[in-house]
Amino acid sequence: MDSAPTMTSKDSTFRLLTIWAWKIIRIPFFAYIGLILFLCLFENRLVFQPTTKSGKPPSRQSPNVRHQFVRSKDHSIHLLIVERDDPRLYALYFHGNGGNITHRASMLQRLATELNITIIGVSYSGYGYSEGAPDEDQLAIDSEAAYSYLRAEYDASPSQIMVFGESLGGAIATRLAAKHALPLLALDSTFSSITDVAQHHYRWLPIRILMKNRFPTSAYAKKFNGTTIQTHGTDDQIVPFHLGNKLANQFAGSHEMIIRENGKHNEVPPDEYYRAIAAAIDKISNDGPASSVKD
Question: Which CATH class is domain 44-284?
Fold first, then answer.
């Protein structure tokens, strides 16, 4: 009979090294896998950070400010509307991933007053007074519901409508502007895609494979032939400037980039931004000179 093979000293050493290597790497390995699972399971909670409100808002906040609820899929979402008697354009405003539209009330008032526009701010599903829960597809449905309401309520044609997008809201605004061939798009601190942002912050994770929410703003920009006014801060700690610049290079139509030197993410855009928007409105409006923007 043949004798059973015996373990050599070399085999024994290799086996011992393998055991010790596994003991060393298993904790970080399982921690890495656990983090991936955590990000997959809780992605929506990390991407969308709403502030919710209970009850109902006042029926009319002031003579030119009112609240409206519209159906979005199978639930209601909240719109905050600032109206002008004879607006030069109508606008939709899509906020960032945090808070809700009531936190942008002063911004809406400023835009309506200085640009002489009627503007509708949208609280996404699960934000503020809006029902439902947010994800990429639902926010697209929310934007379409608000757009349909604006057109019906004011009998406005696409050529009379512009969109504003703040950070994540810029992806929603760009998609809507491209789909409906709107004339004017204004973006503040918006990214090329949300996967680009996540990959920047988590370079050691396979983010581009894992994320369900994509928000591919650059892809929408390539299909938009209108005018884009974009602003971004060079010291943006949330959406790095290079991702805003990457987006800027994708627009098919007229584009103006207003760079905020040392600018951060959550700050009021400069007056130059408002002046550029006013000038763009002047080109597409037949109502005379654009409203002046004060320094």
Answer: alpha beta
